[in-house]
Write a structure and sequence with these properties.
The protein has about 160 residues and is mainly α. It has three helices and no strands. The longest helix is centred in the middle third of the chain and has 59 residues.
Length: about 160
């Protein structure tokens, strides 16, 4: 760990270097934001009830609702942005882990590509086919390894 006397010390540097620590930190932040979100939802509901119940003399039945709409919309936007923020935290933790996996896999992929390039540059010499058995050493059964044409049979079968 770095000391606090170091002018370049950043407490989140250690967190940023580990995908597990990053995921834990982002989960903690998300938990706090979700708690705040619950409080904001309660605030939005109570504000809505209060504002829609606030009538002025001479109002029609819908005037209070029309006056409350901008406030309700603003609080709704805050809640929507908060939900997007928490989703973004989840996504960033996932992408942080995927980045480390990609880094590990990149080294393996490069080695495989280099081996493939070497194979293409220096193709292995094909081994010559084994010499066919001499006519005198042929077995009586001519199955799959025997002559393929009547002209290959020689004088033995004539």
């Amino acid at each position: 760990m770095n000391s606090n006397n170091d002018p370049n010390y950043s407490p989140l540097r250690d967190v940023a270097q580990s995908p597990e620590a990053t995921a834990r930190y982002l989960a903690d932040v998300q938990r706090v934001l979700l708690d705040i979100g619950k409080n904001l939802e309660t605030l939005a509901h109570e504000t809505r009830v209060h504002l829609r119940d606030t009538h002025v003399e001479g109002d029609r039945w819908y005037h209070a609702r029309l006056r409350a709409m901008p406030v309700e919309k603003a609080l709704g936007n805050v809640l929507k942005n908060l939900n997007n923020l928490t989703e973004g935290l989840e996504k960033s933790a996932y992408k942080r882990r995927a980045h480390d996996e990609a880094v590990v896999n990149t080294a393996k992929t490069r080695k495989e590509k280099e081996l493939e390039r070497q194979r293409k540059k220096n193709p292995q010499q094909l081994q010559a086919a084994p010499n066919p058995p001499q006519q005198g050493a042929q077995s009586q059964s001519l199955g799959y390894g025997g002559p393929t044409s009547i002209y290959d049979m020689g004088r033995e079968s004539a």
